[in-house]
Amino acid sequence: MNPEKRLRTAGGGGAETPRGEREEAGREVDVSIVMPAHNASCWLDECLQAISEQDFTGSMELSVYDDASTDDSRQKVEGWRTRLEARGVSVVISGHSSAQPKGVGYAKNMAISQSCGKYLCFQDADDIMSPHRVRLQYEASLLNPNALIGCRVQRLPEGSTERYTRWINTITQEQLMTQVFTSHGPTVVMPTWFCSRNWFLKVEPFDEGGKGVPEDLLFFYQSLRQGGGLSRVNQCLLVYRYHEKAATHSVTEETIWKLRVDFLQERVLSQWSGFTIWNAGKQGRKLYRCLSPANQKKVKAFCDVDENKIQKGFYTYEESKEIPKPKIPIVHYKAASSPFIVCVKLDMTGGVLEENLNSLQLKEGTDYYHFN
């Protein structure tokens, strides 16, 4: 499903050019703001106004790829060209007018391939960057050239995703790495990404599978596989808008679940000889059933705080073809042994889960990983 690495010209037809070449020989700027757009007209004035107000003193360009909009998104961007160029921001716009959009991954790849910045600042057309965003993330990226750089966000409307927003803004630098298996998705959230072009080209283009494909999570995991780092500017540099038309809503929970399980097995469970699943309920059992047979055999026990579950004594894997069917013990968490995969949702127990983990003096990323 992944396209081969390539760069294209800015023409609406999307003709390909060899990787590494530019549309114009010698054209290069410090930062390209990469913006896919599809029917974004109602948000573009605020978005583009914020881009025009950046305090970054280096050279910038805005690269927009319009993915079959049926509104006046492309014309709206064109209408801002003079104002943006007056502020020193060059503008590259292209797109296609097919009957159906080709998806966010395709539009991002096209916007990147027609751009020429040494660094890439990803900007969704419905979000608003602070005046300091490009400058601060550029400075951070110079120090971390092989990393995805994020930032804190303000969610709009306020309170629309309270737990998710709190998680984005409060996880530590270490947790950017250790919590990559949680259901929240990339610990450095896509609308805040900033990275060097060289690193993007080393990883791979975005998956172009279209609607329903989590192109950001696929790229995020591939970046980690390549040894990439993660970092966050601890300032709010983006107004991150929540609305029903956001592309993320087209991705199913099961698609994300499978990607997370596969990455967990690849990165963590492959290194462990045995482990305990922290949650004998629905989520813990689901994780067990999704593991490979080899990793299922590594599960020493389920642990829980629910006495009703503990009193059952064991979980029987009825779907197994083995005879007799596997029976996994269910024990109290204080009687369980590390390492753990914790399948209890964060920030949902009034701090009880966190207190229980702390009581065992466990180290996240060594003794346990969060999966929910």
From TrEMBL:
<feature type="region of interest" description="Disordered">
    <location>
        <begin position="1"/>
        <end position="27"/>
    </location>
</feature>
<dbReference type="Pfam" id="PF00535">
    <property type="entry name" value="Glycos_transf_2"/>
</dbReference>
<protein>
    <recommendedName>
        <fullName>Glycosyltransferase 2-like domain-containing protein</fullName>
    </recommendedName>
</protein>
<feature type="compositionally biased region" description="Basic and acidic residues">
    <location>
        <begin position="18"/>
        <end position="27"/>
    </location>
</feature>
<dbReference type="GO" id="GO:0016758">
    <property type="term" value="F:hexosyltransferase activity"/>
</dbReference>
<dbReference type="InterPro" id="IPR001173">
    <property type="entry name" value="Glyco_trans_2-like"/>
</dbReference>
<feature type="domain" description="Glycosyltransferase 2-like">
    <location>
        <begin position="32"/>
        <end position="200"/>
    </location>
</feature>
<dbReference type="InterPro" id="IPR029044">
    <property type="entry name" value="Nucleotide-diphossugar_trans"/>
</dbReference>
